[in-house]
Amino acid sequence: MSKVFVNIALSLDGYMAPEGMTMEHWDEPEFKNWGAKWSALMGWIFDQQYFRHNLKLGPGGETGPVNDMLRHTAERTGVHIMGKRMFDGGERGWPEEAPFHTPVFVLTHEKREPWVRPGGTTFYFVNDGPERALEQAREAAGGRDIRIAGGADVIQQYLNLGLIDELEIALVPVLFGGGRRLFENLHEPLPSFRIDKVLDTPKATHLRYVRM
Ligand SMILES: NC(=O)c1ccc[n+]([C@@H]2O[C@H](COP(=O)([O-])OP(=O)(O)OC[C@H]3O[C@@H](n4cnc5c(N)ncnc54)[C@H](OP(=O)(O)O)[C@@H]3O)[C@@H](O)[C@H]2O)c1
Question: Domain locations in the chain?
Fold first, then answer.
């Protein structure tokens, strides 16, 4: 059966995104500060050849074990699930050929028709909760794995439902001091994980945990 996994970058103090981003104030100074912190969190991935190619950022980039890991993550993923806030940011920031190349189920209260992008990504807007979104994802995944792409709110819901099999975290040595914290709003019984793999690089520590 498809595995359900999280794969995200996290600041050293536990945040998935810094404080201060609003879609309405995209070009104001608060956002620029947000953007600088976001770049510090994501700098390691922008250096990788696979990521650069996927986002059409131009040639070049590193081709070592982190690049291999990114390719492996993309190849194993048959479906993405994300929250509406992550989608809202991406709708503005992703290239026309969105970088998923799979069906994407967006958890939201908004009713909206599917949004088809070139390159194999179609966004489906799901209004009836995380369990139903996962059922639809399993049907669409074709036996490949299901990535819970974020943000924090959506990951927390799946952790609380005990439905996450694997947690992959790029822990980046940057401090945010506030923002969207990953591990909060969790309740008992909490899932238990064991360490499966650690890939240590100067820019990030890549941690892989598997549910016990
Ligand atoms: N560090 C990383 O690797 C990484 C990865 C992904 C995202 N991010 C960042 O994370 C931030 C977004 O995270 P977030 O926690 O604020 O938000 P989020 O999880 O992306 O989205 C939350 C929103 O999704 C909708 N939603 C969630 N669950 C729902 C449900 N069960 N039923 C109906 N609607 C539901 C609601 O929006 P509506 O009520 O408006 O529909 C809710 O406000 C962004 O800044 C993004 O850039 C970081």
Answer: 4-211
The domain made up of 4-211 is a member of CATH 3.10.28.10: no
Quote the ligand 1 centre to 156 CA distance (angstroms).
Answer: 10
Q: Which atom of ligand 1 is nearest to the CA of 86?
A: 20
DSSP 153: H
Q: How many CA atoms lie within 13 A of 25 on its CB side?
A: 11
pTM of the predicted model as reported, rounded to 2 decimal places: 0.96
pLDDT tens string 88-127? 999 988 999 999 999 999 999 999 999 999 999 999 999 9
> Is residue 25 predicted with pLDDT exceeding 80?
no
Amino acid at 140: A
Closest residue by Cα to residue 17 from 167, 179, 150, 205: 179
Can you tell me which atom of ligand 1 is nearest the CA of 89?
Answer: 47
What is the predicted pLDDT for the residue at 211? 97
Tokens of 100: 């998923």
Structure tokens belonging to residue 162: 């005990």
pLDDT, residue 147, reads 98
